[in-house]
Amino acid sequence: MTTRHPHRKGKVIFVGEDRELWFELHREISPAESPWELVFTHTAAQALVTMAKSTFDAVVADNELPDMDGLRFLNEVMKRHPETLRFIRAPIAANRLAMRFVGTPHQHLLKPGNAQTVFAALSRAIKFQAWLPGGAAQILLSGLHKLPSAPKLYFQVVADLQSPEASVESVGALIAQDMAMTAKLLQLANSALFGLQRQVSHPAEAVLYLGMETTKSVLLLAHSFSYFDRIRVEDFSIDALWNHSLQTGKFAQQIASDAGAGTEIASQSFTAGMLHDIGKLALAANLPEKFGQAVSLARAKKAQLSETETEVIGASHGELGACLLATWGLPAPVVEAVALHHYPVQLLSRSFCPLTAVHVANGLNHETEPTDRDRAGSTVDRRYLSQMNLSGRLDEWRALCLEPARRAAA
Ligand SMILES: [Fe+2]
Ligand SMILES: [Fe+2]
Predict the structure, then answer these.
(1) Closest residue by Cα to residue 13 from 52, 53, 65, 50
(2) CA of 104 to the centre of ligand 1 (A)
(3) What is the tens place of the pLDDT at every residue in 304-315?
(4) Fold of the domain built from segment(s) 10-129
(5) Helices 354-367 and 394-409: crossing angle, nearest 10°?
(6) Fewer Cβ in 10 A, N or C end of the chain?
(7) Could you tell me the distance, in angstroms and rounded to a whole number, from the CA of residue 374 to the centre of ligand 2?
């Protein structure tokens, strides 16, 4: 994993004709103190020439450029410079046309928006880069063919929730349009995992009982797994990974709540826990031979699977999964947790975050799976816990997460 220079200025190129925003950006920052180096170009053609000469951390493009559609331009950037973070500035609207900007592999900035919101989004994104895998995982990702697209339905639900008319019914109706998703959501809501007291038969009911945050995470998980469902991967149990993902999500949420981390961190922990091993699916489906080699090597050497993946493939499942989720535009703490779930000490911060919850939840869950291939390296990192002053909580969390399942099995 390569890290970028933490003190280097973030280099950002703006593309488009939004002079008002440009003036504001200049007004907000004085060049000497600014953590940013900003470059402005009017057209897509100019931007591509400029970007060929120098490396940029991020590109912010208008949805309408004088010479090219903003999305087409960013798709081109993604091909030529996969390491550059991409933002599209587009208005959010209730109409269907605007939905084309939501759920693309570029991050969405609301238009008009102001300099502050632009800087906030950039800071978050550049912070990613302090830990985001270097080019290797991103280039590997762009070469994989069997990958689920960005989950449109998830972003439609997110957009719906921003409208004042949003309700359990409106979200349920959106989900109901997608048969495969409806089936998966109902199957999940009725599974023992959620322990609902009654049978749920309509997406709106599922939303009501599961709650909005859980529903959103479930949509993401179901989206990815229903894509890979159709791919047969030899010697790899998608069902086992599905169960492991659900359990880890649930454990992570319980741990975050128990740690008093607040509802936002708890729900991000749930999402990240559900998606933490998505990179394994992507590897198994796209590079089955190499992935198989990495698995056997990890077993033979009793090493972390992540290490042998890096050795054989060039990137680990955590890094790869994180890159995929970053292109979907998921929140930074979720992406971070997925990237580092086997290496939590690599995160500079030592405050409780979704990574903490997911790391512990994953370790605890692997304890229950004696045949798990990832087990050798999936224990909880005691050093990290002690740096976090959380060593004393591990037994308590083990009981909290594992006892109910043991009791049910007895
Ligand atoms: Fe993992
Ligand atoms: Fe895992």
Answers:
(1) 50
(2) 26
(3) 899 999 999 999
(4) Rossmann fold (3.40.50)
(5) 40
(6) C
(7) 7
